[in-house]
Design a protein that fits this description.
Number of helices: 2
Radius of gyration: 15 Å
Helix content: 25-40%
Shape: globular
CATH superfamily of the largest domain: F0F1 ATP synthase delta/epsilon subunit, N-terminal
Strand order of the largest sheet: 2-1-9-8-5
Structural class: alpha+beta
CATH architecture of the largest domain: Sandwich
Order of helices and strands: EEEEEEEEEEHH
Number of domains: 2
């Protein structure tokens, strides 16, 4: 029996498909979901959501939530992009720029630090989803 996975952002449904396995980047670590998984509601962090049909596919996501119930996985996030749709070199450049900004922003700067950290996590997820190494 397969899982039905829906990845939904405010603007679009990025994925609505039947898959064998899902790995979610939850706030408490990666969570693997197979058919017959117990009901679950979990917060998600910016990272790479992985799905497996015959091969593995990566989707870069930002913060959100996932609900697992009766072999349906609903992923509600602010943004999501399939790894195959991300230009690896552009993702690498964006990650390096965000990394530099984050490293040079003091934690005493409140919102600027928070924004730099979020951008760092977002660009890292995009780079990893595109197949790059961090």
């Amino acid at each position: 029996m397969a899982l039905q996975v829906r990845v939904i952002t405010p603007g679009q449904t990025v994925l609505d498909d039947s898959v064998e396995e899902v790995i979610l980047p939850s706030s408490s670590g990666q969570v693997g979901i197979l058919s017959g998984h117990a009901p679950l509601l979990t917060a998600l962090e910016s990272g790479v959501l992985r799905i497996r049909t015959n091969d593995w596919e990566n989707i870069a996501i930002t913060d959100g939530f996932a609900e697992v119930e009766e072999n349906v996985v609903k992923v509600l996030v602010n943004a999501a992009t399939k790894g195959a749709d991300i230009d690896l070199e552009e993702a690498r450049k964006a990650f390096e720029a965000a990394k530099t900004t984050f490293e040079n922003t003091s934690s005493e700067n409140g919102k600027a630090y928070f924004d730099a950290r979020q951008e760092f996590k977002r660009t890292r997820a995009r780079l990893m989803a595109a197949g790059g190494m961090v």
